[in-house]
Amino acid sequence: MLNKQEAIELFKRSGALLEGHFLLTSGRHSNQYMQCAQVLQYPDETEKLARHLAEAFQEDQVELVVGPAMGGIIVAYEVARQLKTPAIFTERQDKEMCLRRGFSIQPGQRVLVVEDVVTTGGSVKEVIQVVQEAGGEVIGVGVLVDRSGGQVDFGTKTRSVLDMDIQSWEADKCPLCSEGKLPVIKPGSRSV
Ligand SMILES: [Zn+2]
Description:
It is built from six helices and nine strands. The chain is of the alpha/beta class. It has a six-stranded mixed β-sheet with strand order 5-4-3-6-7-8. A three-stranded antiparallel β-sheet has the order 1-2-9.
């Protein structure tokens, strides 16, 4: 298993965890920014992150791994590869989370739900509902990054590779702006 420092280093060297001075879409400023897709472009790093979750659930007789599109697809696939189970994904149709493409869950099937980043946990809760409505048994939730600071409750065994409370401030209270040193970069904008 990765300890917190090893996980942080892995996210940093892959470019998933940036440090600097960022303008978030909320308008707040932060000294860190997480874009999990950056780490998932590297199969060897993804394998290490998924191993952390696979080991956490290896005694739970997982029969199927399910993640929500897009962020959960690669995580589900790699965790399932290591647990030697199938992996499927949910996606939205008319804003409602559902199984498409002929994917199905059997009644009583033991299902692990995975996701890349959890903030409020909304997507994961919707996946849990999809699994339960199909009669599956959710045996746990595994996430790469829990940004809720461990606050989100899925009502089942939950494990994360990294718990991270990313600090942010109102723009007029930002200590980095007060220092007047660093430019603000808006992550995800086309110019970056
Ligand atoms: Zn600032």
